[in-house]
Amino acid sequence: FVSQEAVLVQGKPVALVEEIMNSGSVTIGPIGDRLAELKQNGLGPTTQAVAGSLEVTILADKAVPFAVIKKIMSACTGEGYENVSLAVIQKPSQVAAR
């Protein structure tokens, strides 16, 4: 999950969006480290199946710059995740008052 402030992988905070934006690096070590940890340490059959599928879905706030998302996607592929999907959270449209 990518909020306007932080990146969480399986609920664990791993990086700040601002730090990713300001970093000249293409890679994000803490994200790659967490993904590698999840791949190696499946907690149960369901978690192992998900880790073994090499799929990741990035759920991001629409206000997060794409440059940040691109670096996160790169971190995922760098850890061997072959299928990376992106879902964007949008606020519901405001309905005009009658």
Largest sheet: 2 strands, antiparallel
Estimated helix fraction: 25-40%
Q: Number of helical runs?
A: 4
Query: Using only CA atoms, what is the Rg?
Result: 15 Å
Order of helices and strands: EEHHHEHE
Describe this structure in words.
With 98 residues, the protein is an alpha+beta fold. The protein contains four helices and four strands, in the order ββαααβαβ. The protein has a two-stranded antiparallel sheet. It has a two-stranded parallel ribbon with strand order 3-4. Helix 2 (29-40) packs across helix 4 (66-78).
List keywords for this structure.
98 residues; alpha+beta; two-stranded antiparallel sheet; two-stranded parallel sheet; 4 helices; 4 strands; 23% strand; disordered C terminus
